[in-house]
């Protein structure tokens, strides 16, 4: 096993993702199977290969820059319209600091 | 009016001859789609007001003698991962059950500017993660060709509407095969354009270096016409390409004599027999149409799945961090503190497959594993892209299957995520390289299930790809 249940819990914490005990057990099994398949990549010697992060095409070095001109953006009410909780023009969240 | 067999050009002729108005067409299309939808669950939301308003604008332009646009009056379905202003966009997720976007995706704005009429939003795997459409929080889509089977995924709803005749064309998104595979399962044309050919602005991000928007149609011309309308540089997406968009029409009228086609040998091992037979019949037909074929090798194919599931999950784990219960998602009712709110909202809002990918992505990016997984995968991605570059030095295009097998039964693969991932082998490679690829119908199996043939071309050679696809269609390849 590459992944123990405590390790799975630690990753879930990193991802801010609550998983119940059943999900943790299932996740350990599924990820283990996938990671075992992924080990296949170690068959390849890639020491002289440049990593490819993105599909890139020829373009001028500053082609994606634009003039710094003010343009319209979302107004406050529109930005808040989908919030589960809002008030006084702000997003509201549970208390962060206890005193 | 029977809306099932309309094409963009028959609509154009009908409008020009005043046989029907765009509003009449929109009304008939909406009624037909609403009546047929319970069979497949392909549409999640209908947008009758928006459709009739768009159709009304087309009619006004026609009345004034103005050009109503290349998509005038054409009923379009849009995958629910592409945002539409004022029209609910759920991404097939409980997380966004009530999300009403404040802006339109560039592709949506462009298709409406060209006269397209959006009927509604289509079902899909949650956040476009899946190969069967069974990962939707709103129930699976059924394949209109065989209702006990999946339509493929993740753009299963969009493919199903076009196959079912409830839309003439549709927009989907493709990250590792999510347009081509459902197109092949449902027997329609599906196009993944060159990476960056269509702006991703307003496409809800899954894996940004791999995400594409692309069209579905019942004919090559319809799919190409929709792509023509939405393609091109957009300042709102810095990865959208500067390359000019050529007119695709002339290429589709040319023959394909002397076209040199590569048959990648790695793509013909491990196929279901009937799928192989159909694709080979398709290749024979292309030879009869004047193409030369040559066997080639793409040696890193077998590493593509492993590479893809590192890159896409790493990017997804970062992209999906935004669903936090604060700004536009649901929020757990059980949380007392801020961190509980994040964790419980995400635990309750995401489905099993999305959680699996967030977890895998978080793991491969976590301290100590970055080089072993993510960096390694990026290097293997470069090797896969190089395979294609070398192949295109010898040939004009590649022909391959789309999926190793035709549409499977609902529930058949749902408990085995790795098997589900492995079924994407023939589509993932093209996505990693960013080349244009498409699925065209290539007859059916004995049981009547559609088989798709894949055409893969050089970066920005959509004209060559459409030329080949249109010649195949003219020669009867769709029913081969």
How would you describe this structure to a colleague?
The complex is a heterodimer of chains A (99) and B (480). By secondary structure, chain A is mostly helical. Chain A has helices spanning 5-14, 21-38, 76-80, and strands spanning 86-87, 90-91. Chain A has a two-stranded antiparallel sheet. In chain A, β1 (86-87) and β2 (90-91) form a beta hairpin. Chain B has an 11-stranded mixed sheet with strand order 1-3-2-4-6-5-10-11-9-7-8, sandwiched between helices. Chain B has 16 helices and 11 strands. By secondary structure, chain B is an alpha/beta fold. The longest helix of chain B has 24 residues, at 371-394. The radius of gyration of chain B is 21 Å and the shape is globular. The mean pLDDT of chain B is 97. Chains A and B meet through α1 and α2 of A and α10, α11, α12, α13 and α14 of B.
Helix content of chain B: 40-55%
Spatial order of the strands in the main sheet of chain B?
A: 1-3-2-4-6-5-10-11-9-7-8
| Overall mean confidence score, pLDDT of chain A | 92
Assembly category: heterodimer
The percentage helix of chain A is 25-40%
Structure class of chain A: mainly alpha
Biggest sheet of chain A, in brief?
Answer: 2 strands, antiparallel
Percent strand of chain A equals under 5%
Number of strands of chain A: 2
Give the overall shape of chain A, derived from the CA principal axes: flat
Shape of chain B: globular
Task: Put the structure in a nutshell.
The complex is a heterodimer of chains A (99) and B (480). Chain A is mainly alpha-helical and 99 residues long.
